[in-house]
Amino acid sequence: MGIMLSYQEARAWLLERARPLRTHQNVSLSQACGRVLALPVQAGVDVPPHDNSAMDGYAVRCADLAAALPVSQRVPAGSVPLALQAGTIARIFTGAPIPPGADAVIMQEQATAGEDGKVSFTVVPQPGQNIRRRGEDIANGQVILEAGKMLTPADLGLAASIGLASLPALPTLRVAVFFTGDELVEPGQPLGAGQIYNSNRYWLVPALHKLGCEVIDLGHVGDALEPTRQLLRDAAAVADVIVTCGGVSVGEEDHVKAAVEAEGELTLWKVAIKPGKPLAYGKVGDADFIGLPGNPVSGFVTLQTLVKPFLQRRMGLDVPPPEAQCLPAAFAWDRPDAKRSEFLRVRKVAGELQLYPQQGSGVLMSCAWADGLVWLQPGQVVKPGDALAYLEMA
Amino acid sequence: MGIMLSYQEARAWLLERARPLRTHQNVSLSQACGRVLALPVQAGVDVPPHDNSAMDGYAVRCADLAAALPVSQRVPAGSVPLALQAGTIARIFTGAPIPPGADAVIMQEQATAGEDGKVSFTVVPQPGQNIRRRGEDIANGQVILEAGKMLTPADLGLAASIGLASLPALPTLRVAVFFTGDELVEPGQPLGAGQIYNSNRYWLVPALHKLGCEVIDLGHVGDALEPTRQLLRDAAAVADVIVTCGGVSVGEEDHVKAAVEAEGELTLWKVAIKPGKPLAYGKVGDADFIGLPGNPVSGFVTLQTLVKPFLQRRMGLDVPPPEAQCLPAAFAWDRPDAKRSEFLRVRKVAGELQLYPQQGSGVLMSCAWADGLVWLQPGQVVKPGDALAYLEMA
């Protein structure tokens, strides 16, 4: 009838069950931001590919520089220079290849052209100065991107810089969602007596998108067993993970629980977190089933603290332990929960944590206002100035 | 010939020129994540809309509870209860309206049903217990979302919870990008002598997407004035902001500078940041023009530190001053730049900052490896353990 787990136990238990996606596909760079890299990427070239100029200026042979010298060639970026003739210099621009025989670049601000066209310099250059060497930044064969990372803009620029037009990425995790309850009405519709708006749909779908999932929104089903079973089968056919809100506590009206048990298997927990507590994990066919609490704040916090790491590992990401920042409280909290870890909704202002005054779980106001959660241990009280564990909500 | 500005001066100068978008449109909740809210949102209803049960259990009148009592009605969520008959209790479920006359809910775990169907309780309830009051979370008329914020999943759930199907959002900022240089080759193509891959395109476009911009990628143009002028006119016709990489320093080969000056106006700066330095701001028609340095690392860091706040304010967001975390260094740095603010590419590991060993600006390796920047003042050296200003790269 429900196992009671600590926050850490529940997190570890879920993570153990997150089988990372394995098959991969080549994804073009312009589609790859936010995808998870399936294999390490090795450079197949040197970067830069040739010695080149770090400046707009003049390529010189240091030994020649006793007097003003004539300019024997002009080397814009993208051109192929000739060998530098003895006793001459080359006009050169940033990124342009260094002419064979030149051993330094002098920036143009340190050059003066005489009336005869010869150029003299206000400095004595060191050999190698203002030259970027071939392979200095990336050597042929070097691993430049590790598997299991979510690809960032900089990663894609890096891949492009070595000529890769695509990268081996894991598939996007497909997450099906549906929403249950006779009392739910879609926003924009009039509200009848005893009805409430379906708010879970409108935070859950974008929150899953932000994590990098493909979301399959199967809509709303009333409190009835057969339609719920049908929706579960539909969801399992198209998704890697099924997420619902509500219908998984121990009350009689919870058809989701009965439907998952009929179509697969289900473990119900109580997790010692507040807001939160009821959480269900199961399997329907080959899909994972996650049942979030129906209360929006409980569901939101449970997604952030427990389900997000599960989904991230399921996507193939390396998931580190929760990394809390240590920040001072600008508030007091003297109503600790004796048995549960509490996640207070807070906002970081000028390096301090401010508390949303109403921490009740009835409405998402606190979550909309907050930019993060303070993770309190069971029984922990807070005095202003106490150092607290702050988890940013991305 | 280029004004030299400090980092803070350049940031403030750019922000002053960022005219926030003004016209707005109603955007359905399912399309609104990441959009900027144009007007404050006031609640037009109470939340919750009626007193309701916080538990699965029994709705009772506390004064009646001397003995075991019969269950006179059953109130699932979404139903409309009758007034509670004196001397009876109501079976009730989470979220269901409280029957008139009931003044507390007792959780089902504290109830025992006898063989006669009457229910007795192991606790003495307090009036009001386990009841969520109408309007307790949001009162009719309350401002729930402030203008100028980027809409998050929680904001959308909150809007849905009060029945709003759409929100007044500013338009998505349209940013046109193009890339210049005879030496540039697209990744996947063979590289000729003196050529390099166009890496700027592949980090800049997704970085702008991540900021919430619509990106119009106008491709690549060679080092020639007329095609560059045409591209600028095309860009100004469709975009709010034009961003290019390269072509804006003082060298002769910089056709972008000449093209912007011919089609509009341009201010060239040297900004005392490293990597970075050259930056251009101008106007072409009604569009802003931003010229990033052509070096990928310089361009990337300049986008993160200077252009991102400009674009955010241009999008209509409230842009706070850069909020640095204060974190200890796990490295030493004894090569400070005497005159420029330096942005070192670092990674946060177990609460400490690790340095990418090659801080040269030749390649995006450091930016791909890093999760943030350390902001050093001119001349600042670093010893292990020093507290540093860390800017996360989102």
Automatic annotation (TrEMBL), chains A, B:
One of its GO terms (cellular component) is cytosol. Pfam families: MoCF_biosynth, MoeA_C, MoeA_N. This is Molybdopterin molybdenumtransferase. InterPro entries: MoaB/Mog-like_dom_sf, MoaB/Mog_dom, MoeA-like, MoeA_C_domain_IV, MoeA_C_domain_IV_sf, MoeA_linker/N, MoeA_linker/N_sf. GO terms for biological process: Mo-molybdopterin cofactor biosynthetic process. Residues 176-313 form the MoaB/Mog domain. Catalyzes the insertion of molybdate into adenylated molybdopterin with the concomitant release of AMP. Its EC number is 2.10.1.1. Belongs to the MoeA family. Keywords: Magnesium, Metal-binding, Molybdenum, Molybdenum cofactor biosynthesis, Transferase. Pathway: Cofactor biosynthesis; molybdopterin biosynthesis. It is an enzyme of class 2 (transferase). The lineage of its organism: Bacteria, Pseudomonadati, Pseudomonadota, Betaproteobacteria, Neisseriales. GO terms for molecular function: metal ion binding; molybdopterin molybdotransferase activity. NCBIfam families: Glp_gephyrin (NF045515), molyb_syn (TIGR00177). It comes from the Bacteria. Its cofactor is Mg(2+).
